[in-house]
Amino acid sequence: MRPRFVADPVRVRTPATSANLGPGFDSLGLALSLYDEVTARVVPSGCRITVTGEGAGELPEGEEHLLIRAMRATFEVLGGQPPGLEVDCVNRIPQARGLGSSSSAIVAGVQLARTLVANGGREVDAGAALRIAAAIEGHPDNVAPCLLGGFTIAWTDASGARAVSLRPAGEIEPTVFVPRERGLTATARAALPASVPHADAAHSAGRAALLAHALTRDPALLFPATEDRLHQHYRAVGMPATADLVSALRAAGVAAVVSGAGPAVLALSAPPADLDPGMEWAVHRLSVDVAGAVAVRGRLGHAERDPVAAGRKS
Ligand SMILES: Nc1ncnc2c1ncn2[C@@H]1O[C@H](COP(=O)(O)OP(=O)(O)OP(=O)(O)O)[C@@H](O)[C@H]1O
Ligand SMILES: N[C@@H](CCO)C(=O)O
To answer: Which segments constitute the GHMP kinase N-terminal domain (predicted)?
Structure first.
């Protein structure tokens, strides 16, 4: 049956995310306290999207926008498209740096579409929302923490993407170092070999398992737990400044990794006060976001949290 749409605007706040976390290539991710905010409403006709902040003037302003594509895919599952859409994006997540900007747009679209339907889009539960978002993004390691918040372990089975969200230990103090230059995930993926030595795969399995323990229970083990042999050194040649900063931080005992596909760097413990990363890096001291993509209904400032749209588990 064709869905009934709400007349009020709806708003969603989506966190930046850092995927991989070292050894957890394509599976582990962390939600961070840096947010895009998007407001959407159903209108009688057309499709208008405005972007301020990151990506303004560069991103498409119609159906080709990633967020609109995600909304359309979700409305399709919910039974039909609204007559028209008006969307306003305030983007704060730097784009193409390894902080999950594309997942933020996709998850925002899925959550907005659910919340614009009068019944809260209950046919699309949190698990289905994750599957829709991961199918558009291509892998689940950014969309899972963006949707669910916290530290996520994502995997894919015959039904599609799945994930669990764990609450990280309170001592985790993420710092991200964001360079001016961009790097596309597609380019970074092309730098990876088709296969890796068995010893490296075994090393990564052990470190990724240790990382789940270190992040949630014993941050003292974060340094060994963030050692990676699957992707970072293959990509280093394409992002030498990133590789140098990760090496400098690790030489100082900081559990630092390439954030997502790079070129940003994530440190999971406080960098030394005297570290000078250089002028080209914007440094953000953040916290872990545990709420995920929170969608609300109603006008700004008068909205209440919509429990249907703020899924926590898949
Ligand atoms: N808010 C947004 N709205 C629409 N499209 C976006 C948005 N953010 C990113 N994109 C698109 O996604 C591209 C970046 O995606 P990409 O996967 O390469 O990097 P990322 O998501 O920032 O980092 P990573 O996936 O490594 O964490 C941008 O160049 C742009 O085309
Ligand atoms: N796991 C992905 C994250 C970026 O989307 C990669 O490193 O290519």
So the answer is: 66-150
**CATH numeric code, 10-165+289-305:** 3.30.230.10
Domain chopping of the chain, boundaries: 10-165+289-305, 175-285
Task: Report the C-alpha gap between 86 and 107 in whole angstroms.
Answer: 17
For the Cβ of 20 lying below 6 angstroms from any atom of ligand 1, the answer is: no
pLDDT one-digit tens code per residue, 85-125: 999 999 999 999 999 999 999 999 999 999 999 988 888 99
**What tokens appear for 268 in the block?**
């999971």
Cβ of 99 below 6 Å from ligand 1: yes
ipTM: 0.95
Share of the chain above pLDDT 90, in %: 85
CATH number, span 175-285? 3.30.70.890
Q: What is the DSSP string of 61-75?
A: SSTTSHHHHHHHHHH
Q: Whose CA is nearest to atom 6 of ligand 2?
A: 261
